[in-house]
Amino acid sequence: YELDNDTNQRIEFHLHGDQLWTGGRDKCVRVYDKRKHILISKLDNLCNESVNGISLASLPSTHGTDDRTQFLAISTGTRHFPSDEDWEKDNPYASLQSKL
Questions:
Q1: Residue 69: DSSP 8-state
Q2: Could you tell me if 89 and 97 are in contact, meaning their C-beta atoms sit under 8 angstroms apart?
Q3: Of 12, 36, 33, whose CA–CA distance to 23 is shortest?
Q4: Positive or negative torsion for Cα 13, 29, 3, 83
Q5: How confident is the model at residue 32 (pLDDT cuts 50, 70, 90)?
Q6: Over the range 62-87, which residues count as b (16 or more CB within 10 Å of their CB) and which as e?
Q7: How many CB atoms are located within 10 Å of the residue 29 CB?
Q8: What H or E segment, with its residue span, contains residue 94?
Q9: What is the DSSP code (8-state) at residue 89?
Q10: How many Å apart are CA 60 and CA 83, to the nearest integer?
């Protein structure tokens, strides 16, 4: 399975029936067929950070039918560290403060 994660950041996954759902540093969610080992869907631009946690839930309909409503929940975030150049300046956190 392809995964865009060249850091030690933990990326979680969710097994849902015959599908494996996973996030990545590229801000996407990928859905794989577990039996065929192929990518069947890619959800782009869900957020502005890495997708590092993912969960699916199926809840009963509130309309009294047998239909179920599907929910996708993601957690996002990336740690940001000062650059090497920042450590040489008076304020080592300058590049981080500009992102806030």
A1: E
A2: no
A3: 12
A4: negative
A5: very high
A6: eeeeeeeeeeeebeeeeeeeeeeebe
A7: 20
A8: helix 94-97
A9: S
A10: 49
Distance CA 15, CA 22 (A): 9
Residue 44 has pLDDT above 80, yes or no: yes
Mean pLDDT of 55-68: 78
Question: Are 74 and 51 within 8 A, CB to CB?
Answer: yes
33 SS3 class:
strand
Neighbours of 100 (CB within 10 A): 6
The pLDDT of 56-61, averaged and rounded, is: 81
**Confidence at 66, pLDDT banded by 50, 70, 90:** confident
CA distance 35 to 81: 39
What is the signed CA dihedral for 70, 23, 45, 81, rounded to 10 degrees?
140
d(C-alpha 19, C-alpha 36), whole Å: 10
- Choose between 28 and 5: higher pLDDT: 28
Structure tokens at 62: 């509130």
